[in-house]
Amino acid sequence: MRPxxxxxxxxxxxxxxxCRVLLYAGGWLLVGLSVFIGAPELAGxxxxxxxxxxxxxxxxxxxxxxxAATVGAMVLASLRLRRFRYLPGIVLNGLVVAFxxxxxxxxxxxxxxxxxxxxxxxxxxxxxPTDTIYEIWRAPAWWSPVLVRLKAxxxxxxxxxxxxxxxxxxxLLLSNDEQILVLAxxxxxxxxxxxxxxxxxxxxxxxxxxxxxxLMRQNSDAIAAIAASHGGLADR
Length: 236
Fold this sequence. Notes:
Blueprint: H1 11-18, H2 20-37, H3 39-42, E1 49-51, H4 55-80, H5 87-105, E2 110-114, E3 120-125, E4 134-139, E5 146-149, E6 171-174, E7 180-185, E8 188-194, H6 212-228
Antiparallel strand pairs: 1-5, 2-3, 3-4, 4-5, 6-7, 7-8
Helix pairs in contact: 1-4, 2-4, 4-5
């Protein structure tokens, strides 16, 4: 092979290398647009309904796909073309993609429970700087692309975590008669909602309460008793 002929052997890689700044910028532009579209929710506005995978998340996913593809191509280009000056961009963008990809490519909804008559309920975590605030959404079926906020479970009415405690394995449960919706986390039944009246039946326990573990157990036992009067909780 002629000296200097390596580049000529990989025209696609040469093109990607020349356009790498534009490709990286395009990925970040899509991510920026997703943040702009999602800004009202980040600012604390609570929509009545949401797409299960909204346009902001789709844009973020497209942006990170473009970034990941560019990083992969640039790794190959740096090896094939012996252009190791590409490495800083590869490392910077690659680290961002690696650490953020899991959050971006998840739907943001979890811990769901579905009934035969009441449809399905999903959990999400509200954008908050320090607290872990849970939101509950309803859909007619598990596959529904649109979720509606459960009014009875507005974040000011149900328990939240100010210090990161009791946040393991958050999930929803339904009573066997599908009248009571329960939020369980941290090994306790934490919130109970009467779906017929929209009333929150459980106690609100502040993070500064003395002997909070005892209060959590007492609240959990009370929720279990309520659920038992409705046929108990359906298996998860």
